[in-house]
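Quick review question:
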């Protein structure tokens, strides 16, 4: 698996949207169980995911908790203030830095969308292109409200949204076509385990890169890293 250390911590992000979403999603948010790293022998969201689907955790994920801890340790290098909570919001799990107010990692099992896209709810999320321009100035790019866990694979809104390059999100570039291919693979095979890791290069909530991983047939990793700036 590709292993890239992200730059630590930041200050911008959708924390207000998260706070507003939690009451509405109270039935989906089962618990907040973890401050990463580490949890030792504590409860495992990974086991919960597979138990809910009536399956056992595949051998290829035997070291998953160690991978997540490794990523969060790398994220916290040079950032003593980082406080990473692992939150379950159906159908996925989010490692969220409550200090930097941004998602570090999202993972889950793909599922059919629970409903059609909620256009009004999407419009209620901040215009990310405006935010990217205000934050990055001359380095800005056209952005969409990207999903860490794809809507077509059951992903939700709110905490799941982030500023994503438009050409990447819509498959307009070479990297974008590969990204869309991976999303379609996950969406077309319900029950597929996948993850999406944000790699930050400054203190904003705009990822510099995105690491997207898919566990094909519960056996083989397909992992790619995409530029988001």
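Suggested answer, residue by residue:
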């Amino acid at each position: 698996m590709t292993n890239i250390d992200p730059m630590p911590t930041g200050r911008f992000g959708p924390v207000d949207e998260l706070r507003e979403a939690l009451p509405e999603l109270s039935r989906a948010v089962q618990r907040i169980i973890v401050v990463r790293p580490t949890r030792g022998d504590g409860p495992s969201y990974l086991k919960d995911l597979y138990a809910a689907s009536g399956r056992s955790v595949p051998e290829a994920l035997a070291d998953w908790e160690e991978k997540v801890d490794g990523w969060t340790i790398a994220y916290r290098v040079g950032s003593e203030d980082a406080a990473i909570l692992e939150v379950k919001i159906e159908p996925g799990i989010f490692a969220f830095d409550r200090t930097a107010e941004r998602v570090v990692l999202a993972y889950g099992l793909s599922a059919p969308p629970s409903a059609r896209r909620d256009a009004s709810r999407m419009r209620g999320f901040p215009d990310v292109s405006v935010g990217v321009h205000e934050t990055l100035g001359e380095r800005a790019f056209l952005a969409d409200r990207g999903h860490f866990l794809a809507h077509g694979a059951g992903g939700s809104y709110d905490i799941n949204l982030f500023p994503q390059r438009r050409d990447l999100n819509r498959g307009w570039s070479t990297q974008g076509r590969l990204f869309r291919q991976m999303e379609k693979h996950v969406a077309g095979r319900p029950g597929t385990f996948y993850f999406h890791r944000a790699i930050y290069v400054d203190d904003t909530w705009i990822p510099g890169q995105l690491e997207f991983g898919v566990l094909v047939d519960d056996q083989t990793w397909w992992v790619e890293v995409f530029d988001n700036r």
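Why it works: The chain has one domain: 15-227. Confidence is low (pLDDT under 50) at residues 1-33.
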